[in-house]
Amino acid sequence: MKLSFVLGAAGFTPDTLDVTCEITLDAGAITQSALKLTAKVPGISAEKFAEAAKEAKENCPISKLLNTNITLEYTLA
Q: Quick check: 10 and 52 in contact, CB under 8 A?
């Protein structure tokens, strides 16, 4: 949701943002969250999308709440 907000603020409307998440649990605690994103955003450059994805990852309120290692792999379709 944060990425959708960041893209909208930059003037882009994504056609799709498909995300999967793999959570790692250790002794009942979340120790890692691995996100895989495939996005279709008309008119955006790869560089601008990378900036938006980085900003969203660093400033996501849910990610901050989890306070764990979060990785993000993305593909711009």
A: yes
What structural domains and CATH numbers belong to the chain? 2-76 (3.30.300.20)
Positive or negative torsion for Cα 39, 42, 44, 46: positive
Tens digit of pLDDT at every position of the chain (77 positions): 899 999 999 999 999 999 999 999 999 888 999 999 999 999 999 999 999 999 999 998 888 888 789 999 999 99
Closest CA to 62 of 13, 12, 19, 7: 19
Q: How many helices (H) and strands (E) does the chain have?
A: 3, 3
